[in-house]
Write a structure and sequence with these properties.
The chain is α+β, with helices and mostly antiparallel strands. It has helices spanning about 25-40, 60-75; strands spanning about 1-5, 45, 80-85, 90-95, 100-105, 110-115, 120-130, 135-140, 140-145, 155-165. The model has no long low-confidence stretch (mean pLDDT about 90).
């Protein structure tokens, strides 16, 4: 599926034509939108176009460049992945490829994020792109990932979980059980 979003919608409507008076969505919102859609198994089409002179508004160019910079660091967690296995929630969502799950966290309810149970064994948890280790605990009841606020990224913290076996294409294990 695909979500077609307009970078600079007007208060009246979200037409696909150039809007000189459209308020540009903030970069943080665009990045969260991309991670949310990818973790839901979708594709983001973020529309913005040139004016009558073939030029883009500076604020739209800044958003495109900002998303490009973010993708240079975190693209591994977006490109070539599938949504899941954790079901999206207010906290964020996840993508996966092979034996790797990327947990995209927007909202930490505390220092510990509680997720559904995975049948695969987690071998390692690290924060992208730094490689800083993230503490985790895995039981039959679920997965807990702990990361202090000082080690989180804004607007999305991406935690790479390395598993002992691949995630099947249709595996869904439920959402976070955070209050």
């Amino acid at each position: 599926w695909e979500s077609c979003m307009i970078l600079s919608p007007t208060p009246q409507h979200d037409g696909w034509a150039y809007r000189s008076n459209g308020k540009t969505r903030p970069l943080d919102e665009c990045i969260r939108m991309l991670a949310s859609i990818a973790s839901g198994g979708g594709n983001l089409l973020l529309n913005f176009g040139p004016d009558q002179f073939g030029e883009f508004r500076p604020e739209e160019v800044a958003i495109a460049r900002g998303m490009g910079t973010w993708l240079q660091k975190y693209g591994v967690a977006i490109y070539g992945t599938r949504g899941g296995p954790f079901t999206n929630g207010k906290w964020g969502g996840s993508t996966h490829r092979g034996k790797t799950v990327f947990v995209h966290v927007f909202d930490w309810p505390s220092d510990t994020l509680r997720l559904g149970a995975l049948p695969q064994k987690i071998i390692k948890a690290q924060v992208l792109p730094s490689g800083t280790e993230a503490a985790f605990a895995q039981t039959a009841r679920g997965v807990e990932v702990t990361l202090l606020a000082a080690k989180r990224d804004n607007p999305v913290t991406v935690i790479e979980l390395t598993l002992d076996q691949p995630v099947p294409r249709d595996q869904q294990v439920g959402s976070a059980s955070n209050p």
